Amino acid sequence: MDVLQDHLVRARASGGVFARSTAEPPWGLHLPGTIPLTVHAVVQGRMWLWFDDPSEAIELAPGDVALVRGGQDHFAAHRPGAACVPHEVFQARHADDAPVHGASVFLCGAYTLSGDVGRGLLEALPPVLSLSAAADDPLHAVIALLSAELTAPAPGRQTVLDRLLDVLLVLAIRACFQNGDHAPRWYTAAADPRLGPALGALHADAAHPWTVPELAGISGLSRAAFARIFQLALGRSPMRYLTEWRMTLARDHLRTGDLTLAQIGARTGYASPYAFATAFRRHHGVPPGQWRRGSR
């Protein structure tokens, strides 16, 4: 089990909006903080990104990618501090701009990630993450394919865009976790050969009645050594981690309403609806049915 893949699948990450823009200076774009995750990729020219203070703007060159987490409005422009307008006004102003010398050509997309699993992934990212891809980096190839698909629409375009958006998001998050200080504990632990096998097994089958000795055996460690290393790496005991992961999955199922309480309990390792309701109440202070009504 690839633990990052498990998080991405459960977060149901999807790119709802994506556009290729060409803009001759002066230009500026104002994007709201209500977008959970925005991706910017520069094809030609330069782009500057900032939040409240233009003096802290980040410059993006051709081939660079930036992920911007929701929460704060952010601005993109040909220079820091330029006047910025909402997306609809920007599109109308620059609809006829051609990709001549001096113009900026960039891709802009908006992602949604669902539930607590998606929220956890977003919270692991910095407010803005910029990635400068080397010439042989797969990110370059994905950006080129996205740009080509948006330039010359063809049958099946949305399917192609959806798949490329998935690839772009995974590559960017993976690069963030591998190269930065923002990797969540579970990502680092999954790469540890002493913990990875057990963590992968736990994520592959959260409903299994796991025990510490069984997980330790999967990792080839003694019970005491496994429990100690797990606690140090993830900040909680194996059973506490398992319970929290089960509750995370349960909350996401409760939000979507796709399963009954009995089905949720069975999928998260509880032998009966009563056992599930008792565990959920102990963890959240309210029974699952009440929590579901409140979340809606």
Strand content: 15-25%
Give the class from helix and strand content and strand pairing: alpha+beta
- What composes the largest sheet? 5 strands, antiparallel
Give helix % range.
40-55%
Q: Enter the CATH topology name of the largest domain.
A: Jelly Rolls
Overall body shape = elongated
What does this structure look like?
The structure is a single chain. By secondary structure, this protein is an alpha+beta fold. The chain has 2 domains: 3-179, Jelly Rolls, CATH 2.60.120; 188-295, Arc Repressor Mutant, subunit A, CATH 1.10.10. The protein has 13 helices and 10 strands. Strands 1-9-3-6-10 form a 5-stranded antiparallel beta sheet, with helices on one face. Helix 7 (196-204) packs across helix 8. It is elongated. The two termini are 32 Å apart.
Spell out the key features of this protein.
296 residues; Jelly Rolls; alpha+beta; elongated; Arc Repressor Mutant, subunit A; 13 helices; 49% helix; five-stranded antiparallel sheet; five-stranded mixed sheet
Draw up the topology in text.
Elements: H1 3-11, E1 14-23, E2 28-31, E3 37-44, E4 47-50, E5 58-60, E6 64-69, E7 74-77, E8 85-86, H2 87-93, E9 104-112, H3 115-124, E10 128-132, H4 138-151, H5 157-179, H6 185-190, H7 196-204, H8 212-219, H9 223-234, H10 238-256, H11 261-267, H12 273-284, H13 288-295
Parallel strand pairs: 2-8
Antiparallel strand pairs: 1-9, 2-7, 3-6, 3-9, 4-5, 4-7, 6-10
Helix pairs in contact: 1-3, 4-5, 7-8, 8-9, 11-12
